[in-house]
Amino acid sequence: xxxxxxxxxxxxxxxxxxxxxxxxxxxxxxxxxxxxxxxxxxxxxxxxxxxxxxxxxxxxxxxxxxxxxxxxxxxxxxxxxxxxxxxxxxxxxxxxxxxxxxxxxxxxxxxxxxxxxxxxxxxxxxxxxxxxxxxxxxxxxxxxxxxxxxxxxxxxxxxxxxxxxxxxxxxxxxxxxxxxxxxxxxxxxxxxxxxxxxxxxxxxxxxxxxxxxxxxxxxxxxxxxxxxxxxxxxxxxxxxxx
Length: 242
What we know:
Blueprint: E1 2-6, H1 8-16, E2 21-26, H2 33-42, E3 46-48, H3 51-58, E4 66-71, H4 78-83, E5 90-94, H5 100-112, E6 117-121, H6 130-135, E7 145-148, H7 151-160, E8 164-168, E9 186-190, H8 199-203, E10 207-209, H9 222-234
Parallel strand pairs: 2-3, 5-6, 5-9, 6-7, 8-9, 8-10
Antiparallel strand pairs: 1-4, 2-4
């Protein structure tokens, strides 16, 4: 199947990354030299389409005059994520994140912070849609993402492989800053926007952490909370040779 990438930044990151692009359409007189140069390096020509045609192709996603058609998203296996890591792997597992903006923002933070990959669910969760790609600013095109049917079994397998499974939940009594540095691989599990971690998923966690808050607000957006904890965990990776 063909998937759609809409917007300058998503298309540019797709050209810079590993994405297999079939075609790129641009609105006449709105050519972006950076995209044009990146496309030329990949041997991909640009085709003119009027705004109405781009609106139709992008299915309501803001396209800024550029839309690309690409191959299906290249999901990977979890073994690929862990096997390619040069340091103790840090993976983010998402438990029924359904909002495209949250998913895209979490992927962007994970890529920016140098985490090794993400795990999303096949069912009852957002997929890698044009809206998610745009919300991630194209970070999806650099990310290693595995898609699983049963998150509980996946976490159990990672735990047996020596990973520390860390849940994020506002009701925990442990501040994320109390996490010790570790040479073990770690999995951060982020719950859904409304309900948080499901009970069975929480039971698969070795520990559950929260973000200490001192201001008048009593909650954080899921993607913001995930980014804070990702930063903490990424900073506490201890190389195996220490």
